Amino acid sequence: MTSRTMLTAVALATTVGLGATSWIISLRQMGGMDMGIATQLGSFTSFLVLWVVMMAAMMLPGAAPAVFRLAHLGGRVHDLLLFVWAYLAVWAVFGVAVYALYRPHGSLVAGAIVIAAGVYEFTPVKQGFRRRCCENVRSGFNFGLCCVGSSIGLMLMLLALGVMSVMWMSVITTIIIVQKVFPTRIAIDVPLALTIVGLGVLIIIAPLSIPGLTPPM
């Protein structure tokens, strides 16, 4: 096996393979935990472990192009693994902040956060971070910071709608992967942002119309 082939295999295993495994673990661990806007996070340790697994499931598939770019630039196996772990470490720190700040909330707060997430999609800050995610970055830490900046609106949307919701986790993961892989396109990005804003408005005026948003009485 050539060095380039080995690097490609490691890149595939640490992004797609680890991401797929993390999805399986997340689906098993999150069963019955989703209470929508009333979701409790539980103990710090259990939440942080599950959060890191969730981030590996959601973020590593979208990070695959960056890892493959690093492999083709001649990085060593050690460099690839360090890149991935540093990337996940950034999301782990974000998870600590989530645990400190998150509280179960009402539909009005959820709707406001979702609207803010949709508006953020229009901002130059979002577009700048998204552009950097498509560039050659050798540092997993820097790449992680760029991805947090690019995806923070969508992640806050997940927290608002149901932090343990497999449905919303899947929807937001799909959006993040598309935005990581494809360049900005007004014909796609603007309708998406407007849809998110519209969802937020709907949550405020008709929360019962959103599946899983509120726990059953």
- Beta content: under 5%
Query: What is the helical fraction, as a range of percent?
Result: over 70%
Poorly predicted tracts of residues: none
Please give the radius of gyration in angstroms.
18 Å
Separate helix tally = 8
Largest sheet: none
Distance between the termini: 59 Å
Q: Using DSSP, what is the number of strands?
A: 0
SSE run: HHHHHHHH
Mean pLDDT, all residues: 90
The structure class reads mainly alpha
Shape: globular
Structure description:
By secondary structure, this protein is mostly helical. Helices cover 76% and strands 0% of the residues. The protein has helices at residues 3-29, 44-72, 77-101, 107-120, 124-133, 140-162, 166-181, 186-205. It is globular, with a radius of gyration of 18 Å.
Task: For the structure shown, list the relevant keywords.
217 residues; mainly alpha; 8 helices; 0% strand; globular
Describe the protein's topology.
Blueprint: H1 3-29, H2 44-72, H3 77-101, H4 107-120, H5 124-133, H6 140-162, H7 166-181, H8 186-205
Helix pairs in contact: 1-2, 1-3, 2-3, 2-7, 3-6, 4-6, 4-8, 5-6, 6-7
